[in-house]
Amino acid sequence: MNTTTSAAADARALRFVALLATYLQSANLPLPNAALRLIQGSLSMTDDQAGWIFTAYLAASAITTPVAQWLAGRFGLKLVYQTALAAFATGLWLVTLADTPLTFIAARILQGLAAGVLAPLSMAIAMETLPAARHQGFGPKWTALVLFGIVSGPSIGGVICEYFDWRPMFYLSLPLTAYIFMVVTLLLSEKKAAQRPAFDFFGFASFTLGMIGLQMLLDRGERLDWFDSPEIWIEALASALGLYLFVVHVLTRQVHFLSKGLFADRNFLCSTAIFFALGFVLLSTMALTSPMLDEILGYPPDTTGFLTIPRGIGLVGAFLLMGRAPTRIDPRLFVVLGIALVVYANWLMLGYSPLMDWTPVAVSGFVQGAGLGMLMPALSKVAFSTLEPQLRPEATGFFNLMRVYGSTLGVAVVQIYFFNNTQSMHSALASQLTPYRHSLPTSPPALEGLNHLITHQAAFIAVMGQFKILLVAMLVVSPLVLFLRKPVAAN
Question: Locate the Major facilitator superfamily (MFS) profile domain: which residues (predicted)?
Fold first, then answer.
């Protein structure tokens, strides 16, 4: 009896630290969001480099996520997991030591590489500690935890930054990571595959080359004046070549790291496309909202962080209610309602004004969170219910990978349009101020203040333009709901 009780306690402890690791790796992604102004000032970081704070982490995690299970099978789950935890902690420590934009981004890349391994292996460890009967409903809960980490990270970072500095907010994760490492070392038994696992490295490499080339093109294009730069041509050609080789590889080979059965399932394809758009909207909304509050409207970091809490409350509340929804209700109805709420939230954001208080931000964030909390479990149920059981583990990895790529590409796209629109709006506003139409100040301090005011107005108008892009992104994928088949009973 004592042995059984001890085994159950060990399983609960492992499940807890696996979920804690899942939360940490997702919360650290947007953790600097509320403190961007302080990080930029401390490191002399330009506005376009600030976007790399997020895209470096996301793109790096997208590289290692697909290969995590192979690494665990080849070298052992425990060893790979411990290595990823050590790398994650090292990345946290190096971020606090960074004194230039390059060293800061390099540390974020290391964090992202480790996070890409931690996320799927944490899920695998948690699944092993659960009875088989509870496996079916665990995927949506795990995804909800990831999203909760994303929406709650800025509030934690904002509070710490307001009362201390931006570096201590990264220290917070170090003792928690050490605790996870200790529990895993003591309780997790080593497991390797009986035979050396196979992995389609060519398919993985070509897909990664295509996506990372595209990411680098979007991140670096504005700084290098796009195709006037040889580097941008190289990145564009690398992206086109990688995606071309991947498509040919999928069409001509029977076995590759993405099974053809995934592409034959209409529900899974449509749901994945919607999930990609959801990732495009979620992190991009946060990447726009926090700088708008912090840099344009002048909110302190803790208030900026606190205004992400309503989004988290809406997400968790809607998710818990979805768990009590009657099974006889078609989940496609919840997919429609979830998309409608996300679209409505982005429409509310178009009504932001420089004269507003915090209420519109909190309301739109809550509505968006409620939409996400409703959409996530419903979309997961629709996506996986028609898949063959043997395809579901692979499908889960690809499904979440598309959210990551949606987020990283979304941040890059809104950054590009934000800077372009800010410059064009600044020119348009300034062109209306001439000595022949207005009584303008002539002293240098007054002119500097006027230019500062115009820049703020132009930046705010540009932010509104980016919210329109995010609204359109959700509207574009919303017709895919019409192609979803009614989910079948779980196998």
Answer: 14-490
The reported pTM is 0.82
> Which stretches of 292-358 are DSSP H helices?
301-306, 309-323, 331-349
- 19, 129 in Cβ contact below 8 A? no
The Cα 403–Cα 409 span in angstroms is: 10
Phi/psi at 76 (5° precision): 105, 130
Would you state the structure tokens that stand for residue 125, as one six-digit string? Answer: 């460890």
Burial bucket for residue 300 (CB in 10 Å: 0-12, 13-18, 19+) = middle
Report domain extents, the chain: 1-136+164-189, 200-254, 258-431+440-491
Token pair for 296: 């344009």
Q: How does pLDDT run across 48-90, given as a tens digit for each residue?
A: 677 788 888 888 888 888 888 888 888 888 999 999 999 999 9
Q: Which comes out higher in pLDDT, residue 17 or 192?
A: 17
Nearest to 115 by CA among 27, 219, 205, 211: 27
CA pair distance 464, 130, nearest whole angstrom: 45
Summarised one tens digit per residue, pLDDT across range 9-19 is 888 888 899 99
Domain boundaries 258-431+440-491, corresponding CATH code: 1.20.1250.20
Percent of the chain as helix, strand, coil, to the nearest 5: 80, 0, 20
Domains 1-136+164-189 and 258-431+440-491 share a fold: yes
**CA–CA dist 384, 137 (Å, integer):** 11
Contact indicator for 319, 377 with CB cutoff of 8 Å? yes
- d(C-alpha 343, C-alpha 294), whole Å: 24
